[in-house]
Write a structure and sequence with these properties.
This protein has 8 helices and 12 strands.
Length: 353
């Protein structure tokens, strides 16, 4: 059996209640009567934002899927964003465990400094207007700023892997948030193997050289990251050795064995692991964390389970990407002792900075 087949088989076991590892997403929530991420399920009918109408307020559970507590109002404001019809053609680490001072950290390439429009906050939309392509090349969705290439910017690229049983539509708010901060994001249902994701990344970077594409000479092939939630996290580790990747975001989905061996050892760029104290997959990250040899921060948020893990950790996710890909050092102290993401409701650890 190929590794991706094993992953899917074990995910089925989780959803049937015969295992306890980090790969349950929308399907498990459906069994519990909870709306995961409070968005439409995979392969939904067109939602109101597609028609240009505002969506209803989003709610999301405030703890793990097994706790039937009342939902809380989602912190992300839902605003309609334009949908572009799909179109064809379209830093060296320093040794040492932990962080005593915020002044220590990954050293962004000076060439990327000032390349992003400044943002006052990572808790809200950034300075760009997000838009997206639905079901475009290979079925992928692409989220990007309407102001592509403004001020001569070439935009960092990010590949996002949704959790098992979900797709890009379930992470619309998350990926619009990234686009509003200047990132171009491509996403499709996670494969577990990384093969389809590699092909779509090939396509998107190829658009940077396609003079008939809206992305022509507006992408930065030297700033490419990847991340994912649950099965998407495992997919990220599966293709971690892709030499184009230089940043990683792993969300609530450690190697199922709990002993590593899923590809974290191949990670070769700054990494943030985002977990939750009520998530079944977060403890599995311990071995992955040990395997990672590049700079890595591991954050665990209180009152956070598997389903709401990406949403509850969206602020440090954006902050980490702005720090690493925009060269904005003001976000760096938040990840170390005394910083925002090393204080309640987060716990943190780090190494190799």
């Amino acid at each position: 059996m190929r590794r991706d087949e094993v992953i899917r088989a074990v995910c089925v076991a989780v959803l049937m209640g015969t295992a306890s590892i980090g790969c349950s997403d929308e399907s498990m929530a459906s069994r519990q009567g909870i709306d995961p991420l409070a968005m439409q399920p995979a392969a939904p009918p067109p939602d109101s934002t597609t028609a240009g109408m505002p969506a209803a307020p989003i709610t999301t559970p405030n703890t793990d899927v097994g706790a039937m507590t009342p939902p809380v109002t989602d912190p992300l404001p839902v605003t309609p964003d334009p949908v572009t019809p799909p179109a064809d053609p379209m830093t060296p680490a320093m040794d040492g465990e932990g962080m005593g001072e915020a002044g220590m950290g990954a050293m962004p390439d000076p060439a990327m400094s000032g390349s992003c429009r400044p943002a006052d906050s990572v808790d809200a939309d950034g300075p760009y207007t997000p838009t997206h392509i639905e079901d475009g090349h290979g079925g992928s969705w692409v989220f990007y700023p309407e102001e592509l290439g403004a001020d001569g910017m070439t935009h960092p690229v990010f590949v996002w892997g949704p959790g098992a049983g979900t797709g890009p539509s379930n992470y619309r708010d998350h990926l619009n948030r990234l686009a509003s901060h200047g990132f171009v994001v491509i996403s499709q249902p996670s494969s577990g193997s990384g093969g389809p994701e590699t092909a779509e990344l090939d396509w998107l970077l190829g658009e940077n050289d396609n003079s008939s594409s809206p992305f022509y000479q507006k992408l930065d092939p030297n700033r490419v990251g990847m991340g994912g939630h649950s099965l998407g996290s495992l997919t990220t580790m599966a293709m971690a050795d892709d030499p184009r990747l230089s940043l990683y975001v792993l969300v609530c989905g450690g190697c199922m064995s709990g002993r590593g061996g899923c590809g974290a050892a191949d990670i070769h760029g700054p990494t943030v692991i985002l977990g939750g104290d009520g998530d079944i997959g977060t403890p599995n990250y311990d071995a992955d964390y040990e395997e990672i040899q590049s700079p890595v921060v591991f954050l665990t948020k209180d009152s956070t389970g598997h389903i709401d893990c990406a949403r509850n950790n969206l602020s440090p996710w954006v902050a980490f990407m702005r720090w690493q890909f925009c060269g904005e050092d003001q976000w760096q102290p938040d990840f170390f002792d005394g910083g925002e993401y090393c204080s309640s409701p987060w716990e943190c650890r780090s190494k190799n900075f």
